[in-house]
Amino acid sequence: MKEKIYTIPVNDAFDKDCECPVCAMFQELEKNAVEYTMGPSYMEDDIRAKTDELGFCQKHLQQVYDCENRLGFALVIKTHMDKLIADIDRLSKEPVKGKTFFKKAEAPSVSAYVKKHGTSCFVCEKINGTFDRYIDTILHLYKTDSNFKKKYKESKGFCTSHFGLLIQRGQEKFSGELCEEFIKDTTGLYLENMKRVRDDVEWFINKFDHKYANESWKNAKDSLPRAMTKVDSILGD
Question: pTM surpassing 0.85?
Answer without folding.
Answer: yes
